[in-house]
Amino acid sequence: MAKKIDLKDIVQDALDSSIHQISGSDAAFLYAESPTSPMHIATLNIVEGSLKYKDFKEIVASKLHMLPKFRQRLLSVPMNLDYPYWVDDPNFDIDLHLNRIKLPDPSNWKTLRSLTSTIFSAPLDLRRPLWSVHFIEGLDEIAQVPKGSVAIITKVHHVMIDGRSGVGIMGVLYDSDENEKGKKRAVPMPYDPEPLPDELSLLLKSGYGFLKNPFKIPKTIGETVYSFIKNKAAKTLSIQKEFNSATYPVPITIFNGSISAKRTWGTAILSFDRINVLRKMMGGSINDIILAICAGGIRRYLEERERLPMQPLVANVPISIRSKSDTKMGNQIANMMIQLATHIEDPLERLEYIQEQTMLGKSRHNAMGAKTLAKMADAVPFGLANLAAGLYIKYNIKDLHRPPFNVTITNVPGPRGLLYLNGHKVVSIFGLTPVVDGFGLIIAAFSYNGQVSITTTSDTKTMPDADKFSRYIRESANELEALIKKAGKKKNTVQKSGSAKSKSTPFFAALKKYFKENPTLQKKYKGQYHLEISQGATTENWELDLSEEKAEIKKKKNLNPKVLIEIEDQNLYQLYKGKLLLEELQIQGRIKLTGSKANTTKFMKLLTAFLER
What we know:
glycerol metabolism, alpha+beta, globular, acyltransferase, Nonspecific Lipid-transfer Protein, Chain A, transferase, diacylglycerol O-acyltransferase activity
């Protein structure tokens, strides 16, 4: 007997607020999936000591309720007329997502890297929750890792997460306390999902969403046009040179062809403090140093194969638009295009070129607006976007035009301290990322516990020797470090012989005078603020103490700040003289504030009031 259709239940399903639709930016990762391009992110975590599989499974099971999407699957709207929906999977079984294997002999780093490549190359089942974990035992011959340690390879589809939310997942599954071993774990929360929604209810839900917001697409287009006009006006008024794909065409490289299904990867591990010292000596950001190191490795790799283009390669550098308070999973990223200066032989000149590019790129990104960029993705009808992606891959349209960029380089800040699993220390974390036709190279920098792992993901056709490329990354870092330190010593010698003074000293003299003339402001901006003024190889520290009756502004040898402001001497001087705008320095990342949101906001208001006096 045929099942009776209950229209009341169908309408109720259509209005169910617990069923969430994926966003346009998430959908981009879904319909980019192909037989040679599974679109998942992975981490390889090496855990010290003999962690038992039973304990690991219990830990994951006890925390699944904190990661709702790990028990949800995607359900497509009939005929792909709209974006799919996240729904609870009534058939969820944790044993279908956890895999226990032993590392084959010889149980060394090379074998682990090969096994990881094989696991990473396999696609996830789109009919189930989009994640899997491989628990690999018997790491017996890896240097600096105790015998019997385990490796944990976690794969999560990119439709679920971006880099920042992936770090959040890590914070849920792992502990920051080594004393968790033997501690009684919480009983897994009950999971009682509803049956899968009817196809008709999904169609009704999509139609209801359109009726609620019929002007979504024209509104987004209007906002985009406004931002575009504003961006054009800013360019007309700007005296800085702008990256233009017509003036500087993106070259076609060996990284921009069709890819194979088997992944290759390699990693270089660098000290975070080492990179930060170079950043302080040269100014700019940590990301600038990482881009310059990667550019050096890319230049050598292509030069060795006699495939180095005359034009500089262009990197796609993802930027998180996720606020610090946003803990939701999903993708909240925009993209910045940076010329990597691979046409410049000298590493220092290359770094300076990249620094200029990142400043311009952040300015352009801000002019358009990250939120507008994100809205643009949601404005594209899913059916059209899905069709376009399919045609692009099927007919190799990438071969008919220059690529928009050559390589993706992403930098994800990870946990600063150690992580543990049932009391066992996580030794290292490596991030593997998806590649697609036309873009066969992606480099992911991930910081953890004072280390930065720069992991290269490619395929056997594009870069069969990814381990050699990683060696070039390490050598590029060594070369850049030697040149920066050599240049810093020369600069420091010149400064000492000439008794050079800080250019920003007049700023602090004027600030003292400002508070003397306006004593009532001290209460308004009450607090202690420390400024670290970089002068290349040396730094000068100042303390602004507004906690007492009288404002104290003085030099200080040792800082123990609640609020730290880092800025270059030259930039602070230019800011004081009105030749640079505070907003401009913020956009370009040339002023860095560390501390609570309330205190850093208070300091920025103080600085703005002083500059506008």
